[in-house]
Amino acid sequence: MNLLKNYNLSKLTTIRIGGKAKFFAQPADFNELRELILFSREKDIPIYVLGGGSNTIFGDIGGLVISLRKLTGMKVERKGEVFLIESLAGTPLREIVSLSVKENLDGLYRLVGFPATLGGAIAMNAGAFGVEISSFVRRVIFVDWNGEIKEKNSEEIEFSYRSSPFPREGLVLSCLLELPRSDTPVEGEFKRIREKRKRTQPIDKPTSGSTFKNPYPLYAGELLERVGMKSYRIGDVSFSEKHSNFLINHGEGRYGDVLKLVNEAKRRVYEEFGVRLEEEVRFIEDSGVDGWKVL
């Protein structure tokens, strides 16, 4: 078990902002991950598990940060007009999306452009353009906080908008996805969505993705633009001029500036519309099994 100390977390997040973790580890297999969980329990060290780092911004972490990026791989089985994809949690979602387009499978291609791992996508129930990944989940294997490996079928998992029982109940190890073949070619729609993302979202910049959840039936980006947050900047961090719900690091962004921006955005939207925006990005200053210090 290789533990690194005082590890700089900024290079692990897509926005390239972050403090340091007291401990950091990158397990190579399930056994190493289980050892880390048991070690943290024995030493009373809080844990945070990181996937692709696309919806997380760190302050300083007094506990253990675990990256699952080495836990990759997938197996594919075709059953008639349905494909079963069993994938490890650290597998980049883009690889599964690419496979679905190649095999002309329906639905999942709409998640093109998500820089998440499969485990992270399941934990936040990633969704876009009318689909959520929970629609394709058939089984999740996870390790609970006692180090026991467990399994749940889709009907046992309480998914909701941008939410799941994970990591509250444990850490996703692998997932079985079921994807049907499409009756019509999906590549054209896949390319259209990809180009729309490039045109309307700052995916070529260091960003953490959508900052706030959409307060149904409204859109967070529209509310933020209407209160003047588009391109609004503090220090080296701003809301994007392309999409007001995306934060951008212009080079030397600091965690404290991010918090100031988010607080200002929430204040303006509440004062103008009476709407309390809820964060989609996780702002983490300390970590643990039962939750984190979130702004």
From TrEMBL:
It catalyses: UDP-N-acetyl-alpha-D-muramate + NADP(+) = UDP-N-acetyl-3-O-(1-carboxyvinyl)-alpha-D-glucosamine + NADPH + H(+). It is found in: Cytoplasm. One of its GO terms (molecular function) is UDP-N-acetylmuramate dehydrogenase activity. Residues 16-182 form the FAD-binding PCMH-type domain. Keywords: Cell cycle, Cell division, Cell shape, Cell wall biogenesis/degradation, Cytoplasm, FAD, Flavoprotein, NADP, Oxidoreductase, Peptidoglycan synthesis. It comes from the Bacteria. The active site is at 162, 210 (proton donor), 280. InterPro entries: FAD-bd_PCMH (IPR016166), FAD-bd_PCMH-like_sf (IPR036318), FAD-bd_PCMH_sub1 (IPR016167), FAD-bd_PCMH_sub2 (IPR016169), MurB (IPR003170), MurB_C (IPR011601), MurB_C_sf (IPR036635), Oxid_FAD_bind_N (IPR006094). Pfam families: FAD_binding_4 (PF01565), MurB_C (PF02873). GO terms for cellular component: cytosol. The keyword Thylakoid does not apply. SUPFAM superfamilies: FAD-binding/transporter-associated domain-like, Uridine diphospho-N-Acetylenolpyruvylglucosamine reductase, MurB, C-terminal domain. Its EC number is 1.3.1.98. Pathway: Cell wall biogenesis; peptidoglycan biosynthesis. Its cofactor is FAD. GO terms for biological process: cell division; cell wall organization; peptidoglycan biosynthetic process; regulation of cell shape. Cell wall formation. Belongs to the MurB family. This is UDP-N-acetylenolpyruvoylglucosamine reductase. The lineage of its organism: Bacteria, Pseudomonadati, Aquificota, Aquificia, Aquificales.
